[in-house]
Amino acid sequence: MKALLIIFFSCIVIYTGYRVYRSIMLSDDLERAIQRGAVILDVRTAREYASGHIEGSINISLGTIRERFSDLNPDKVYITTCSHGLRSIKAESLLKENGFKHVYNGGAWEDLNKIGTKQKIK
């Protein structure tokens, strides 16, 4: 039981550290990319997207992204985002595997909005 508690609290500390690191290290790069015209690609479901999103973002769910590569321009810069950051990592990987060279993981859409997208939640 004691070992489980240690593992649990270690995971919390690691996750918190990751979120702080991400906020500090990635915010400037992502903000600059957005200011230069990067497209925010929200990979949540249409229902999730309808409940709140970054204005101007494009919604292509992770489940349909393979069928919709042709909707995207491989020369553009994309920042993937979702509810917690897990699906956006997968979307980033899928896009890169299919020839998209300028793709960044923006993590959770609410966090991405907070770091300076200069866009409004809709």
From TrEMBL:
Q: Which domain of life is it from?
A: Bacteria
Q: Which PANTHER family match?
A: FAD-DEPENDENT OXIDOREDUCTASE (PTHR43031), PYRIDINE NUCLEOTIDE-DISULPHIDE OXIDOREDUCTASE (PTHR43031:SF1)
Entry protein name: Rhodanese-like domain-containing protein
The scientific name of the source species is Sphingobacterium oryzagri
Q: Which residues form the Rhodanese domain?
A: 34-120
